[in-house]
Amino acid sequence: xxxxxxAILVSAVLNGLLTGAVYALVALGLTLIYGVLHxxxxxxxxxxxxxxxxxxxxxxxxxxxPYVAIFLLTPLFFAFGYALQRFIIGPAxxxxxxxMLLVTLGIAVIIENALLYAFRADTRTIDVPYAFxxxxxxxxxxxxxxxxxxxxVFVVALALWLIMNCTDIGRAIRAVAKERLGAExxxxxxxxxYAMTFGLGTACVAVAACLLIPxxxxxxxxxxxxxxxxxxxxxxxxxxxxxxxxxGALLIGVVESLSGLFLGESLGQIGIFVIFIAVLLxxxxxxxxxxx
Amino acid sequence: MxxxxxxxxxxxVLAAVPFVVQSNATLNFLVVSLMVALAGQGWNxxxxxxxxxxxxxxxxxxxxxxxxxxxxxxxxxxxxxxFGAGIAAGAALGxxxxxxxxxxxxxxxxxxxxxxxxxxxxxxxxxVAPITGAGVGTLIKLDLGAQTFQFQSRAVFYWVILxxxxxxxxxxxxxxxxxxxxxxxxxRENEDAAEALGVNARSVKSxxxxxxxxxxxxxGCFYAQxxxxxxxxxxxxxxxxxxxxxxxxxxxxxxxxGPLLGALVVKSLGEGAKxxxxxxxxxxxxxxxxxxxxxxxxxxxxxxxxxxxxxxxxMRGATRAAASTQGAGHG
Lengths: 292, 331
Known about the structure:
The structure holds 2 protein chains of 2 kinds.
Chain A (H helix, E strand, L loop, with lengths): L5 H32 L6 H19 L3 H28 L3 H23 L14 E3 L4 E3 H23 L1 H11 L1 H6 L4 H23 L9 H16 L4 H22 L6 H13 L10
Antiparallel strand pairs in A: 1-2
Helix pairs in contact in A: 1-5, 1-8, 1-9, 1-10, 2-3, 2-4, 2-8, 2-9, 3-4, 3-8, 5-6, 5-8, 6-8, 9-10, 9-11
Chain B lengths: L4 H11 L1 H4 L3 H26 L8 H18 L3 H25 L4 H19 L11 E2 L14 H24 L1 H11 L1 H6 L4 H27 L1 E2 L1 H4 L2 H14 L6 H20 L5 H16 L3 H29 L1
Antiparallel strand pairs in B: 1-2
């Protein structure tokens, strides 16, 4: 049992919140896709790995700072996600939920192993000058990249909220999420809306990757660790709920940080899964989810 | 007995293979394929007939493997008894997870996620708990002999796993033919309608999960005896969860021979890719993923469904051709 001064506890909670913010970025895309397509996107983790590699090579080969790369990779991954849903997942799954689940699983396996094939299993990092800079908050020090990530998640959430509520495509997405057949009868191109949603979800992953890479590492299976946690968050917050994902992510970040503190590093993640199973069993619709 | 004839025929043909093929590498390949077919049949009973897609069948495979190992190594239990205990443990775990998940009414994606979470929890526990050998894993001491379930010859292992696959085929066929199987399929097709007709969906799914857990655990037990080594990444890793669902889906979900056909096809593809490209990591799995997507795209019913469809189309084409020639004759 570690000696628990309030300072350690407070900084553990703060660090948990910062980790949670990154989880939130991954979870936002996942919950958006679930809310509209009603599928669990198993390719999300592999797409995150791919985005991390993209951010890594953008810095290594082209010298583009990760924070600048956000503006490059986000549209790129949006287009990739759009094409993936429009031309592969959509046609391949014949509109059957179970098939969609399996097609995304197949794509995950392809992407992850394509990365493994191309870049091998080596773990790589970049060194940006600000990677280890910290901000002194008086009672604790926090790493600059993590604080930036924390701020960015709110910007992304706000942007998503604006897209969903103030644009035509946002209205169309919400219409399809609520009543697919009705939306189709009203003249909405459902295949296009599905693809837009998948694109938006994938774009979130690109933002997450650019914010992560300055003080994180990349290898072909790195995304999986995040995506299991992101599933938990999405379920915890109620599948399809953006606000739920945000709050759930921060909560899970703190839980992981605290259980790491109390149980030791290797058991840190077990707290997450235990909470996950408990929530699923007790409140299958999540903390903020609508009744099914 | 007639319903079991195709199974007997297939097993009899496969049993003759070691008399023709002497190469250890080929036999090893077949043993691993059959082991995956067994794990896949377990998944198929729950996922194929019952429509409950599990993404965490590693939980059963790993439990079977670890129970077999630990009983032998730490408690000196006889290997065959350990094998049986591993299967029983898989069934028990299926009962527990099933009771919890189905009591809460988890369906579809939620059920898939909760099974995945159980497998992950077990993996993390196995990677730190002293009894499993933690990160190092557990090694069964080499001690050849029928009593220790360790054989010099690959052929014997081949017949053992073939026998287990045979039993799993019979189980699937018996389920298909039984009242229980009809209930299970009714639950898959429309759970609410089945309940309205008086089927107790919860208990039907739970029983299916127990059988499913036992069959997949048997594959895990066999893994432990064959390779004599288990660690948390092997036993509870995602690889086996994926293979267990991939083989029936590619072969034909909810069919008796689907998992066996799927396992042979998928494993041959993997080996073929390795032969063509050399031992490059990742390439065989890229192929796996591509085949999975393609099969769902082109033949949503798997290879068996696709073949049946093709035959139907050919027959329809033949009848139409016959009808048109007949019509021409009358004209």
